[in-house]
Write a structure and sequence with these properties.
Length: 343
């Protein structure tokens, strides 16, 4: 494996923002991963594991350690279980299985990024999340440098969360993921936008659902389309916050109808996009070279030549306004990589 020096990270992210990595290498195997870890450890450097760069904001200073890009490839099928290497493109995998009439990930079409990132943040959209189909995650345990297979219950999947981005953050490097899909299974049509699209139709093919999802994402600027400035982003910039029923009621008393979804006993999830707009930030709003997508209030975008500092200034302005108006601290969804981060 080659270790490159001072490699610009911006082209490796969907935001197109960020300074250089001190060192950069592409791992095509588990032994490359071990070599990378040992390289960083022996020099006392921090390590950052890069997947598709679709949920990432890199600082303008870049990263003073080793960025290890996961480039492990391969898809194997055993019965209805697909073992997919972490460096495979997620949307290509979805396209292939949907065409072969396997159900389980059709609503996750059009999501940018690699397979290895999907268990980390329990990728979800349009009424589906990967936790429903993942049956095993194989990862290198950095405590032992040995591979380990984790069962779903060990992964601690929740909304946009797993042990990989919370309690055990920095411990594992995902190398492949097993998804159990359903041959000729029916597509999931639980999300309002999708139901509306297929209204009145009892049956719809998996491919039609995946296409509808892609079209909805495209309309919201959430599909990577060359030349579309609205998709120079990291998708949703904030998580949808969960509040108590009492807090929800206080907001509703002041604002009238508040969109929300039940989120367990006595709790409601409020769309962050709604909070952002209500706090005074309309679609298309901008601050310097950073802005809000013209098609979705939750996507912060690089309007061209934006710096990470521009995006952070906008993030802070939005988060402060939402907190002041609603008493909710919005939590960013993307990962931040800067001089102090890494493992
Ligand atoms: N809304 C607004 N303004 C907007 C957009 C939306 O007020 O500009 C409100 C509306 O009330 C709308 C509601 O927000 O009904 C929900 O909007 P949408 O269906 O677009 O979904 P979301 O909650 O904003 C979440 C995920 C997306 C995922 C979609 C579809 C999070 C943080 N985001 O967005 O995931 O694609 O649902 O399931 O959970 C991502 O994680 O990067 C991502 C794009």
């Amino acid at each position: 494996m080659r270790f490159l020096d001072q490699i610009a990270l911006a082209p490796y992210t969907t935001f197109g923002i960020g300074g250089p990595a001190r060192y950069f290498a592409e791992a095509a195997s588990e032994s490359d991963i071990r070599e990378g870890v040992e390289f960083a450890r022996s020099r006392g450097l921090p390590l950052f594991v890069l997947g598709g760069g679709s949920n990432l904001l890199v600082s303008d200073e870049g990263f003073p350690g080793l960025v290890l890009r996961i480039a492990l490839k391969g898809v194997e099928r055993q019965g209805d279980v697909f073992r997919v290497a972490a460096g495979e493109d997620w949307d290509e995998f979805v396209t292939t299985v949907v065409a072969d009439r396997y159900a389980g990930v059709e609503c996750l079409a059009g999501i940018p990024g690699t397979v290895g990132g999907t268990p980390v943040q329990n990728v979800g959209a349009y009424g589906q999340e990967v936790a429903e189909t993942i049956v095993a995650v194989r990862a290198i345990d950095l405590r032992t440098l040995e591979p380990r297979e984790l069962a779903p219950r060990e992964c601690g999947f929740e909304y946009r969360r797993s042990i990989f981005n919370s309690t055990e953050r920095g411990r594992y490097i995902v190398t492949c993921v097993d998804y159990a899909l359903r041959k000729n299974g029916a597509p999931r049509l639980s999300y309002a936008d999708l139901k509306k699209h297929f209204s009145g139709r009892a049956e719809s093919a998996l491919t039609e659902v995946a296409t509808a999802v892609r079209n909805i994402r495209k309309a919201k600027g959430m599909l990577i389309v060359e030349g579309d400035p609205d998709c120079r982003s990291a998708g949703s910039f904030f998580k949808n916050p969960v509040v108590t029923a009492a807090h929800y009621q206080r907001i509703a008393d002041g604002a009238g109808v508040v969109p929300s979804y039940p989120a367990g006993e006595g709790r409601q999830k409020i769309p962050a996009a709604w909070l952002v707009e209500q706090a005074g930030f309309h679609k298309g709003y901008f601050l310097g070279r950073a802005g809000i997508s013209s098609r979705h209030a939750l996507a912060l975008i690089n309007r061209g030549e934006a710096t990470a500092a521009d995006v952070i200034a906008l993030r802070d302005r939005i988060a402060e306004a939402v907190e002041q108006k609603f008493g909710i601290r919005l939590e960013p969804e993307p990962v931040f990589l800067g001089p102090q981060s890494g493992i």
